[in-house]
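pinned: reference chain
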Amino acid sequence: MRYKSIITAAILGTSLIVAPGCKDEFAEVNTNPSAVTKADVRFLFTKTLAEFEPSKYQQWFYNNLQYMLPWTQATLSNEAGNQAAMNLMGAYESSQSQVVNIKLYTEEIKYVLSLMEEGERAKYENIRVMCNPLLVYLGIFGTDMYGSLAYSDAGKALHELILTPGYEDQESLFNTWLTQLDEAIEVLTSNKADQVTLGAQDFVYQGDTEKWAKFANSLKLKIAVRLLHVNKAKALEIAQQVATSPAGIMNSLDDDFFYCKGSQEYHFGDDVLDGQGRGIGSQHLIEFLVNHKDPRVRFVFQKNDFNSMVVQAFLDHKIDLPPYIKEAANINNGKFEGWKAPGEPWVRYFGAPINTDARNNGATNDAYFNYNKFKIGDKQYYPMARMNREMLQGQKDYTFPDAPEVSVTEDKQDNAWYGLHFSSAEVNLYLAELKLLGANLPQSAAEYFKQGIELSVLEYDKLAELNKIPYYSDVYDKKEATLALMDNEINNLLESADYQLSGSTKEQLEKVYIQQYIHFLLFPQDQYVQVRRSGVPMRGSKILAWQDFSTTAGDPNFAIPRRWTINSPLQSDLMYQIKVDAFKAQGYTTGTQDPKILNFERVWYDKGAPNFGEGPNF
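pinned: its structure tokens
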């Protein structure tokens, strides 16, 4: 069929301009499939890599900032504080579209290779299997909140005319993905000398197949920890396979999946933080990070607006400072003289209470949520730490806070966005968890734990530097300190009892889960999955406790959804019966936004996991 060749050419990125003299060549492409073999598979792979995007704009705007981060008690859902309806889902972005989008390109790579002679096709084996971990990563991302999804036959409509791909359950998906990762590891570690190389066409690992093999091998741990409540033995077996694989594991910043498409790639244009309001850090989390002098608070969250000059301006205009800022300042006869211990760079990070009733208390509302209290004339100041915009987007301008009558100073430097989609810190923290649960691994849980924390801090510092966040290397106020990682900070952090493995297995697991929780602050779905499967943070903890959202009588548990709401399929949908059967098999109620139902009806691997805040139940 001719339309197939036309669409194929479009997917390959071929520029086909219908003009006098070109008509016969266009017809030949439509009628001669072998003409497509001229496409460069390297460029197809680059396009696949460029389309790799776990969290698009709407996922950050809705899924991450409106639901997941507030539900895990990392941030607040609204600048006016959490509200009673915060556990009700409204608009959101599907997390399944990304894997389908990538699969379109990987299926095209396989199709183009199928048209080659066997000898020529064999030269592209490395590139073909390098697609596997990309697909698996996004597949995990797609199934976490839904369960079953269409995968194996997805993306095959173009050449195989499969318009109704079957849904596969999570257990089958995990088996398929483990097989795909094993295939990638086997091919990439075979050291074939005749393989076509990618070089700069691979903007993550520059065609280094050893690093791709480490990535594929380490990614198996993301599946292993999700299996712990449904097949613990298999989870531990996977961990042991990963640790002994000749591919090795991701264990340094050089192994990490740092991601930047190019000098003018800014991630997305619209502001996901909705002006100045959303993404405010939770009070208990910010206090934990600051009290332990954890450098990651400086990289994930942005300094508030109350530098020494703003504090002095409030004093000069005889306007009350927020009480927690006043308490941190040394003020004498109406003059700001400096900060109390711990001083800069720690004193401009404050979070807000997460309780849905907090803003109903007059004093609390005035201290945190009444923004009219944080003004001098018409100029607004923000006393709390919000997620750092420039860690999420490039091309963001920053206005340095100052007194209202001072000329504005701005940082307008455009900078490409750098992300980190999978890391050595995540790998080591998974290994620490799996070791504690019985996996036969070469290092102790304490060693993996320590490496995980150290790598996490280094990774966040590198991201902050690459994204050129405000204050990273320069200050605006002479009484400020820069944010870059300082000598001995990591060593000092690791001396804290809360950052060392000790106590019972459950107590050690809690510490591992807290570090996963902190590491995942810029990876909200992974953080949500970690909280969902571990029950950490947990109620009554002496380290970082789970807080009750609501103090309303009869509602002590405030149900939080454990999966996304799913629309009831339309009978006009070609996939109608397939979807109906898949949802029924999982016991899902479709079309509901009831958080109690969405809390009770779980995805397969979540069955048996503890409720939010209950702590580990192994």
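why pinned: Residues 1-30 form one domain. The CA atoms of residues 37 and 250 lie 35 Å apart.
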